[in-house]
Amino acid sequence: MEIRPLKARFGDSILVLWGRPKRALLIDGGVGKTYGESIQPAFAALREQGVQALEALVVTHLDRDHIGGVADVIRRRHQHQLGIRDVWFNGARHLPVGAPRPRSIAQAEALGAMLHEQGLAWNAAFSGGAIRTPSHGPLPRVELPGGLAVTVLSPNLPQLKRLAALWPQALAETSDAQPLPRARGASPKRPPASIPIDLVSLAKARFAEDSSVANGSSLALLLEHKGRAALMAGDAYPSVLAAAWRRLCRERGGAVGLDLLKLSHHGSSTNTSPQLLGLLKPKKLLITTDGSGYGHPHAETLAWALLQIPDVELIFNYSNEYSLPWETIRKGRCGPKVRLGAESGLSLRL
């Protein structure tokens, strides 16, 4: 399994490849400019590798730094020449209670209309229904061609109910016409980590969970292929992820090994708790952001990770003022491994 986090500024857009012949899925489309800057050239490289279609186009949730480039992925199919076999996205029709339909041009509404108009498969792997964890029974698991198993860990029913009740408000918060929504208690943008980095002091920060309705509705998917596992956490809540992970371990009769965790919400301190890190214990942490917007990743998040999992590898898809300070805490053979994305991009083989 290969993970290619594309450069999407402060957003997410991640290609996953596996199998022979090679197959691919795309998780999120980043901000509006991500298609032209990163997705289009990445698709050209896929075609050269013989990939003819995305097995799935995943839209984790309606925040504009995840959904922004998705419309172009669909609209420009005749240009990039990659088919789309299924689109995974919880739109208004998948919400558990009725919600008012505002006269909005927000991207979530536009995407839903586009999927309907173009007749694309929409949540077909889930029988057309909502992608969520059920209240009882096994967690949803889909096996894609080529042997990639996908298990859904978020959202749950309460989070989709919250989204349904606040759908118009959530659309307004994530519209291109609006500024980035602020997390509770967060400043608009954090500065980079100060050097020298004091992990112990940073780790004393009090954890307070995210309250964004849109983030709570985020898909989080565990990807497994040939004994390797990667958790693509979207912007999901840590409490929801922790509950689902414990449930998964009970289903499988023991601990589940995790090779890579894509940190939720770009490393925000409200979306990854010390308890979740201690529960998951991933070998690698992937941080996908250039630091613009809010100044992600938050230093306390990485401090919690490094103290909970001393041998974890930090992987950034950008090399800049928000990632470079973390190289300074490695001295000789001691300290965490740190990997920075090159200008040409980043490819992780698990």
UniProtKB/TrEMBL annotation:
Membrane-spanning parts: none
Keyword Hydrolase on entry: yes
Metallo-beta-lactamase domain boundaries: 10-138
Protein keywords: Hydrolase
InterPro entries: Competence_DNA_uptake, Metallo-B-lactamas, RibonucZ/Hydroxyglut_hydro
Transmembrane helix in keyword set: no
GO molecular function: hydrolase activity
PANTHER family: DNA INTERNALIZATION/COMPETENCE PROTEIN COMEC/REC2, RECOMBINATION PROTEIN 2
Protein's UniProt name: Beta-lactamase superfamily II metal-dependent hydrolase
Organism field: Inhella inkyongensis
